[in-house]
Amino acid sequence: MRMSLQTLRVLEAFLENPTEELSGADVQKRGGLASGTLYPILLRLESAGWFVSRWEVIDPSSAGRPRRRLYRLTPSGLTRASEVFASFGRGVLA
Prior knowledge:
Layout: H1 5-15, E1 22-23, H2 24-31, H3 35-47, E2 51-55, H4 60-63, E3 69-73, H5 75-88
Antiparallel strand pairs: 1-3, 2-3
Helix pairs in contact: 1-2, 1-5, 2-3
């Protein structure tokens, strides 16, 4: 798996609270990435088994917004992401 700075920022957003589901917009805010960069990374990580995703269950007209796709680290994704950051040591993205 290619670990660009952008990929590391995506993983870092999920490692803040590994059990939390995040929408692409949440990851975009936390990582400061453009959507054209973010979504290909999310798709690549999901295809590799690092993430699972689902559509949120809401009524878009009641919520006043479209449904969001929610992403969550898989147990193996959490292990791999933790290993990636451990291999760099502290302060990789600081």
